[in-house]
Amino acid sequence: MKPAHTIIIAEAGVNHNGDLDMARRMVVAAKEAGADYVKFQTAIPELVISTVAPKAEYQKETTGSDESQLEMCRKLHLPLSDYAGLKQYCREVGIGFMSTPFDLVSIDCLAELDMDYWKIPSGEITNLPYLRKIAQKGGQVILSTGMSVLSEVEDAVAVLEDGGISRDNIILLHCTTQYPTPYSSVNLRAMEALASLGCRSVGYSDHTQGISVPVAAVALGASVIEKHFTLDRSLPGPDQKASLEPHELRLMVDEIRQVEAALGSPEKLVDEVERPNIEVARKSIVALRTIKKGEILTAENITVKRPGSGISPMLWDSVTGTPASRDFAADELITL
Q1: Can you give the CATH number for the domain in which 76 is found?
Q2: pTM of the full structure
Q3: CB contact at 8 A, 139 and 169
Q4: In-domain check, residue 2
Q5: Is 223 in the same domain as 285?
Q6: Listed residue (109, 113, 47, 40) closest to 77, CA to CA
Q7: Angle at Cα 99 formed by Cα 114 and Cα 140, nearest 5°?
Q8: Residue 332: CATH number of its domain
């Protein structure tokens, strides 16, 4: 059985710090790491963040508290005019392009680029005008569900569905919106609750440190994994410290592909690679000592030893009490 292919999204986000050349280098790094998509974040900061919006605590820790959230984000985002060229560069490099829009104008911009998926971030799950506009554009949707309860996810899915996007075209990502996320706050089993909503599949957007949790998510059935990465964790910016460096992203991709191969099917079968070892590892009924023809076979003259090419010990009760068909030497396989 061919293993399912987990979609791996290398989340560049705004870790390019508004530098188009760095964004292009991140495209190459994501491709070399084996990711299926590299994803950016598209926004006009003034349309997303008010002048009075505070920074999150993790943003204060990583970028200081001297500037507002709006001032910080103005430094991080690329202009809308850069995204068409960035998608073309992804095509040339050979990796899928995605970007998350954070405002209605950015949705219009990205709609022109014909992305495979709309990626809706956790913060927009209660943004009715935003969800309606995504639904108007149509296509496939990956919806992150951080900071939400199941009823809020259901409401967002209903808005998309009412707008024309069927549940078969929606993938729900479990997520804990904290950077980094403590392991005790991950709750991967919440994917089971998301699966109850009847969308195409569920996945996981990870903000923990390291790669163990996204790999575990794949083992639990995640069809999509999203993970932040950076060219260098020492770079300035709010998300750098909670991101993987390229060699770590490569390791995560490799581990996920190994788990995919290992998952197999729900059937319990003898695999071809182990079939030759049946004879080596299993046992047969053999003579415990020299046995004469006609002697009754009992626990005193037969036993169980390797190899497994003779009579199975599961037939022990059928063999005992019968006469030996011929003479047997010690350790010789018993035949009837």
Answers
A1: 3.20.20.70
A2: 0.91
A3: yes
A4: no
A5: no
A6: 40
A7: 50
A8: 3.90.1210.10
Radius of gyration of the chain from its Cα atoms, rounded to whole angstroms: 29
Neighbours of 42 (CB within 10 A): 24
Structural domain including 336 reads 270-336
> Which residue is listed with tokens 């199975």?
312
Are residues 208 and 134 located together in one domain of the fold?
A: yes
Q: What is the pLDDT of residues 291-302, one digit of tens each?
A: 999 999 999 999
Encoding tokens for residue 27? 């495209």
How does pLDDT run across 2-36, given as a tens digit for each residue? 568 999 999 999 999 999 999 999 999 999 999 99
Residue 190, domain member (yes or no):
yes
Residue 298 lies in a domain: yes
Q: Cα 30–110–235 angle (5° rounding)?
A: 40
Structure tokens at 23: 């964004």
Which residue, chain included where needed, has tokens 């598209």?
42
Question: What's the full length of the chain, in residues?
Answer: 336
Q: First-to-last CA distance in the chain?
A: 39
279 three-class SS: helix
Residue recorded with tokens 């705004």: 14
Query: Do residues 227 and 244 touch, judged by C-beta distance below 8 A?
Result: yes
CA atoms within 13 A on the CB side of 229: 34
Q: Per residue in 48-106, pLDDT tens?
A: 999 999 988 888 888 888 888 998 999 999 999 999 999 999 999 999 999 999 999 99
Q: In whole angstroms, what is the distance from residue 120 CA to residue 294 CA?
A: 80
Q: What is the pLDDT of residue 62?
A: 83
Provide the 8-state DSSP code for 80: G
Query: In angstroms, rounded to a whole number, what is the distance separating the alpha carbons of residues 170 and 264?
Result: 25
Contact 304, 282 (CB under 8 A): no
